């Protein structure tokens, strides 16, 4: 068992290091997958089968896909930051790393205990997943149901953020053609202003309304 | 842990297979490279630009929605395992959970989030 | 914990607000697909009815006290008080949004659905007696707010605000979650009452797990109430968000964060109160001072009110530091008054400007007091109240908070607080001066009158004055809520 743990932990540490040391972000992301998988293995050795499976299904499977998507969207071939940014980031990284190292040292030195609670029997009478199911769907019923609302809000949010455009555009077309503003004249929008004043119109191509409000809004 | 032994054997065989095939082929492969041979292969056509291109946001939307329903499925798993103990009570609470997400699903459906164009 | 799950008796009335709000949000999402015109008020109406129903259902059981779901969610005085407050904030926000979202072309059903979801998150935060529920409520509230802040999709500043708020908020959630995990490791429970019981048995301050966990908890919640030094997101998010959303989040999110802090302060941290006084005092002093001094330098009213809201978080923190039931009831009183004044002030800003334009600079307010006397008077009332000048409710709130702090022997904190209030008067009066003593330099600001928005502002003015004169009515309520909360 100890050998298994040592092997998995070694893979975990090495792949985590590769995540931050590798120059190519896509390769880093793939090492992160490896890290997640070895973490799942460690969960298995702790008899937390469900967490291990979730680790593989959700993290290594789904969330890493998002990571890769973001890397592709950002179009980061290589690190593109300038020297000073890297220096600042490295400096911060060293400081935070030192703090964490000190924390680890203190932890080992003082033996941070579990407090007054003694850990339960290492092996639950029924399977781990079943025990989890029984707790999750009885005592933790309320948080469980709230989770569904959180997921719902996330769905709506994803749609609003990515898909709102066409509908909003259609609506704004409708109001611009039909409604008249107070005082009898049609409401003057940023888009029209920007068109009226070519100096304000942004150079970037795209929806005039999309970009124009950027130029139109002032910021102290 | 004994029940994981087959998994371990399976994983070991998989690793062994991968290592051996790649290792053997690197050993016995003849090395005669030319410029044309080293070029990235793209269906026999000269490669057009970089593989890293920006692509449309709707791919991302699909990925996000996949995660959300993936998490929902994860919740179903311990529920199914403990279903006998939970009984009708469990059925009702999972029904509520699913109901909320069905509302989300209908919303996505009507919003044409699943349509590609 | 036995193998057999226990059936939980559910008190449906006590959960009324939660059920109504989630039902309303879901109904709105489906309603979106029944045919309606682009100018439809249907979503706003449904939200109003939902919020009223939520408030009414809590009103029915306002005197009952019970713990639901094995102590995950409690229905007590504090829950009732905050649920009323959040419903009121929601109702006023819906009224303010009514015409504003149409004018700025963000009139989408999802707007109101997210507003209701966010309110639901706040209610859950206020009622949760367990750190897991606190976290879920906070996430529900915040997720909806991230999207609402970025609702003006065609507006770069709105996108930027949303992104910043989201990134920093995600960090704060991480801190909070890590803190909860450490506290669980130290005490073996996430339930606040059980945690307090464990702590009375063993000296927890010896345990670094507990200390670090509690600190991280304070960081996570401090972010939501925008206490310095976790306030960086506030000005940008408040400025970039649609003004009606700013009004909603400045009142609601802050009150919800403090609701959780009050509950934690009354139980877990309250048990080791003396050890927390230095930490929280330092945060309170920083928050008041940085907020007020930076507010002096702002020319954008939204930004200025953002810094002012940071400063007000500092005053509420003074009440939390004072601790105990008195401190808690002072915090409740202050939060109710603060929410009203702030909603009113931002509400007036929603009326300014034509179409999608935003007229929120101090210079845009020039001459407003003469051209629109009603708006001028209302804004003056809010500014006086925010500055803590009698006879407004803001004055009574400050008197009560500082009184409680004096009784707790926090003299330096009170002195700094009073000095800060004096500083704050400068920038609040600057707005009044602009409205009455300056001439508009460019085209005078157009006021887009709207009946619902004006009604909301009127209600806020009336209550701000009424609670200034009849403060004890609200105060009694706050005190009784806290008494019933233990």
UniProtKB/TrEMBL annotation, chain B:
**Among the entry's GO cellular component annotations, what is one?**
NADH dehydrogenase complex
Described by its record, this protein's role is as follows: NDH-1 shuttles electrons from NADH, via FMN and iron-sulfur (Fe-S) centers, to quinones in the respiratory chain. The immediate electron acceptor for the enzyme in this species is believed to be ubiquinone. Couples the redox reaction to proton translocation (for every two electrons transferred, four hydrogen ions are translocated across the cytoplasmic membrane), and thus conserves the redox energy in a proton gradient.
An example Gene Ontology molecular-function term: NADH dehydrogenase (quinone) (non-electrogenic) activity
The UniProt gene name for this protein comes to nuoA
Lineage: superkingdom: Bacteria
Transmembrane segments annotated in the record for this chain: 6-29, 59-80, 86-110
Q: Does the keyword DNA damage apply?
A: no
Q: Which organism is it from?
A: Eiseniibacteriota bacterium
Q: What is the lineage of its organism?
A: Bacteria, Candidatus Eiseniibacteriota
Question: What does the subunit section of this Swiss-Prot or TrEMBL entry state?
Answer: NDH-1 is composed of 14 different subunits. Subunits NuoA, H, J, K, L, M, N constitute the membrane sector of the complex.
Family statement drawn from the similarity comment of this UniProt entry: Belongs to the complex I subunit 3 family.
Q: Which reaction does it catalyse?
A: a quinone + NADH + 5 H(+)(in) = a quinol + NAD(+) + 4 H(+)(out)
How is the protein disposed in the membrane?
Multi-pass membrane protein
The question of whether Transport is a record keyword is answered with yes
Where it sits in the cell: the answer is: Cell membrane; Membrane
Catalytic activity, EC = 7.1.1.-
**This chain belongs to which protein, by name?**
NADH-quinone oxidoreductase subunit A
Major site of localization recorded for this protein: membrane
Entry keyword set: Cell membrane, Membrane, NAD, Quinone, Translocase, Transmembrane, Transmembrane helix, Transport, Ubiquinone
* Top EC class of this enzyme: translocase
Automatic annotation (TrEMBL), chain C:
Q: What class of enzyme is it?
A: translocase
Main localization (coarse) = membrane
Which Pfam families does this entry report, sorted A to Z?
Proton_antipo_M
A single GO BP? ATP synthesis coupled electron transport
Where does the chain cross the membrane? 12-31, 43-61, 73-98, 132-151, 163-186, 209-233, 245-264, 276-297, 304-325, 331-353, 374-397, 409-429, 449-469
The record describes its membrane topology as: Multi-pass membrane protein
- Gene Ontology molecular functions: NADH dehydrogenase (quinone) (non-electrogenic) activity; NADH dehydrogenase (ubiquinone) activity; quinone binding
At the top level of its lineage, which domain of life is listed? Bacteria
GO cellular component, alphabetical, reads:
endomembrane system; plasma membrane
Where in the numbering of this chain does the NADH:quinone oxidoreductase/Mrp antiporter transmembrane domain appear?
128-423
Task: Spell out the HAMAP family in the cross-references.
Answer: NDH1_NuoN_1 (MF_00445)
* Family membership noted in the UniProt record: Belongs to the complex I subunit 2 family.
Summarize subunit and interaction data from the UniProt record for this chain.
Answer: NDH-1 is composed of 14 different subunits. Subunits NuoA, H, J, K, L, M, N constitute the membrane sector of the complex.
Function, as annotated: NDH-1 shuttles electrons from NADH, via FMN and iron-sulfur (Fe-S) centers, to quinones in the respiratory chain. The immediate electron acceptor for the enzyme in this species is believed to be ubiquinone. Couples the redox reaction to proton translocation (for every two electrons transferred, four hydrogen ions are translocated across the cytoplasmic membrane), and thus conserves the redox energy in a proton gradient.
Q: Which PANTHER family match?
A: NADH DEHYDROGENASE (PTHR22773)
Official protein name in the record: NADH-quinone oxidoreductase subunit N
Q: Which organism is it from?
A: Eiseniibacteriota bacterium
Q: Which taxonomic lineage does the organism of this UniProt entry have?
A: Bacteria, Candidatus Eiseniibacteriota
